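Discussion board: Methods & Data

I've been asked by a reviewer to show the raw model output for two of the constructs in my manuscript, not just the figures. I'm not sure how much to include, so I'm pasting the format here to get opinions. Each protein appears as its amino acid sequence followed by a line of discrete structure tokens. Is this the kind of thing reviewers expect to see in a supplement, or should I convert it first? Here is construct A:
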Amino acid sequence: MTFIEDVAKMPLMKLPVRSTVVEVGTGRVLFSPGSMMSDAQLEGAGEVTDIVAPSLWHTDGGPRAAKVHPKARLWGPPGIRAKHPGHPWFVLGEDPWPHVSELQLVPIAGMPKVREHALYHVASRSLLIVDLAFNIVDPKGLGARMVLQLLSDAYRRFAVSRMFMMLVKDRRAFTASLAPIAQLDIARVVPAHGDVVETDAKDRLLAALRERKVALT
């Protein structure tokens, strides 16, 4: 597993953005390619078989990556074909996922405007997420405190964003869809925004969810 680190320059802060390349026996998967990644960064990922845009919030990087890797299958969540017509999308959870034994899909329900999908890499016991939780412990930018503390309640800590939870429309479906996480053997959590969580990763994620009144155990 390799990481491609980037930064999105926002009006109030610099948002760290991580894309991940996962090697499995059946291919190489580029998870959550950033929309501002250069061709050189995308080429540096090496040959990939699959490109995954795991959330309706993070889709623009998929078609860009597909231009650099035209032989790769392009994946997105339900609703992706309407958002980006004209691209040969496979739909997560609808079309057969070819890496199911090595990379398990964890679709997050109850959020029709987001439809985030996490991936669990069995070999490394890593859970790859996008916006489910942030871990920006060293934020950059004059407005970082306002964005991460006042709006998200995730300033300098590993936390589920308050803003993310505001988009949950069906709390029961949301909680039920996350229940598999409690059964996974998670050694680390790899967020798209912030530092990788290497210590007590599963316990910390479950605690972050409980803080938002989402109890999985």
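Construct B, same format:
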Amino acid sequence: MIKFTKMSASGNDFVVIDNRESQISDVSSQISELVKKVCKRKLGVGADGVLLIENSSKVDFKMRIFNPDGGEVEMCGNGARCIALWAKSKIKNQKSKIEIETKAGVLEAEVVSDNTVKLKMSDPVNPKLNSKLSVDGKEYEVHSINTGVPHVVLFVEDLEKAKVKELGKKIRYHQEFTPEGTNANFIKVRNKDSLDIRTYERGVEDETLACGTGAAASAIISHLLGKTKSPTKLHTKSGSILTVYFDSSSSKITNLSLEGDAAIVYEGELV
């Protein structure tokens, strides 16, 4: 049996497994099948992804992130915030601030209150503004950036009516972003300090209630276009608010952080 902790960060839910003693063998095909089974809603635990906590030779922990399709990805902002809360709650004398090794670099996370975690992320790369993207004969103006994983951002007039799943899927698989694909964020500006956001996530292959790296990408793109400033509050589909902080100079973004709620939902065993 494999012990797990079900966690949620602003509506992004994960199955967290302590794999520091290798209770799951490092065989990619076996991990992939396990992840697919566990993440399947109504037939499994149900989750937006599986997080494996492993030993790191560099920092406090190593985090491996698997999407529901079984594929391993580089980074997950809300997932990293869950790992920090898990460590503070489960490990005796664990400090509030930890460093987490990921495929996208080392991240720093701090539990700032019982249910709030702030994550210092790597500097974003490859911002590209005002691109034209043709989908089914219609041209869209999109913006892209990598905040640990690739994201596309679209501004919409009516977020409630936005075809997030339908259009998001077509953008995710668009030839412009092959071979790795992209995540797609649909956002609407509230004011200079806040945005509304909905996200189609690559690997989940559906809209999720929140996306940390997507929130960061959207806040940065909006700022670069002169629409908002740091800190930016992102109102997610879950109703939770993610706050993105960063410094900006000469179009270069540094000191990127993501803050929001996180919680342990329950614990169980996979049989």
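Answer (T.O., handling editor elsewhere):
This is acceptable in a supplement if you add a one-line summary per construct. For B, something like: The mean pLDDT is 96.
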